[in-house]
């Protein structure tokens, strides 16, 4: 059940699996440790997007951790990557992001014997999960950076997800995603069906995130095809200590489109110096 401690060397990367109990069964979670400059370095936990996984992050987590001298933990949520796929009859409900934030993430921390306050780095759905976790468990979060998070459902989001559904059914998108997921149908349909379900249109978390007290960085591209700047501006209205970063020439994945700007902003948030 328990993972070995994070490696101390800044270039060390260690992959593995750990089991948690969730939804009345044992679920295997894929993870990757990225070593910091020292064992006492802050721990940055990466939460992936709606179709993401450990491998979908590519080299960015290691790039960020090495640039600012922190440790990193990357993992694939249940249903994604090499983690346990959804059961055949398992359909996600409107509370699926809450359950990841309130149930899966604490169980993962317990299984890996992580009992220190962590920093969270969440992208898209992962950003929403990071916000929900920080609001529910303030003592366990030192701070968080969220990229293109969702705090409510917008028309542009639904239109983008509908287009992704068409692409999945008519292009080579399933083959491309299969490079990153053992069960590509589990990953895609679990995410796509709930986001497009009529009951999900009323999903919103502005009131809940007002409980966040830690430092918070909210980043969004001005050309984001899945959401407007209202997503991060809405966070700032509810969480006064929020730092906003609105990036030109940037779509839904700021860490891919503008990695240098994201690294610099996270370094400032964590009071680190890139390149040290």
TrEMBL record:
Q: Could you name the domain of life of the organism this protein comes from?
A: Bacteria
Q: Matching InterPro entries, A to Z? A: AB_hydrolase_1, AB_hydrolase_fold
Q: AB hydrolase-1 domain: which residues? A: 44-265
User: What span is annotated as the signal peptide, if there is one?
Assistant: none
UniProt-listed Gene3D superfamilies = alpha/beta hydrolase
One Pfam match, by short name? Abhydrolase_6
- Record-linked PANTHER family: ALPHA_BETA-HYDROLASES SUPERFAMILY PROTEIN, HYDROLASE
Q: What is this protein called?
A: AB hydrolase-1 domain-containing protein
Which species is listed as the source?
Answer: Methylibium petroleiphilum (strain ATCC BAA-1232 / LMG 22953 / PM1)
The lineage is:
Bacteria, Pseudomonadati, Pseudomonadota, Betaproteobacteria, Burkholderiales
